[in-house]
Amino acid sequence: MKAEEKNIIYNLLKTSDSFINGFSSPKFLKTPVFSDDIDTQEPQQENKSSDQTADDSKLSIATLSAKIQRCTRCQLARTRTNVVPGMGVENPDVIVIGEGPGYDEDMQGLPFVGRAGILLDKMLGAIELSRKTNCYIANIVKCRPPHNRDPLPEEQNSCIGFLEAQISLLKPKMILCMGRVAGHKLLNNELPMNQLHGKFFSYKDIPLMVTYHPSALLRDEALKRPAWDDLKGFKLKLDELRTK
To answer: Quick one: pLDDT band at residue 164, thresholds 50, 70, 90?
Structure first.
């Protein structure tokens, strides 16, 4: 229930009580401060497929982002500072997908802007990709999980319809998943990273590759070589698709 609706009901009950008890005015009563309720419906009831989301509202990326900003589908709405819908160009060659916002992203409302974001930009730049010219960057969940934990299954389920709609609207040539969480959700499997990374899969007929999350590379420099090999293979495939 909205705060405004609560206030109307309270004032109605307050006035009724005052007259019943012989008072002509309820002004001596202090009105509490109300707030909007968080939507607690089951995620599956709220979640729509990408086709439903796009068709029902005839969304653009801008209007979809505004819709994401208002979302209260899961418990992450209670702890976020800012929603992080995504950023990039509207006709991207590639959608880059992470698991969820971290501290810096939550503060700024933008994806991949902390240390991992700086490294991601360098990784993309090495294969001639950029969020400013030919990429769109998004996440599985649009709000930061507390303490940067992995997003819970119910949180992912609540949010995945937004990402599906983004992919449907943007129509990228390829998808690059950063890390196992993003890969597992879009591919609906739980393969370990040594079986996921560097290989090509398909998401709704779009070629998809999973590679190591920039945060993992910051923790373990030994992963930089296989990640670079992944990116080189990704670029070869993208160049092939660009010529078709």
So the answer is: very high
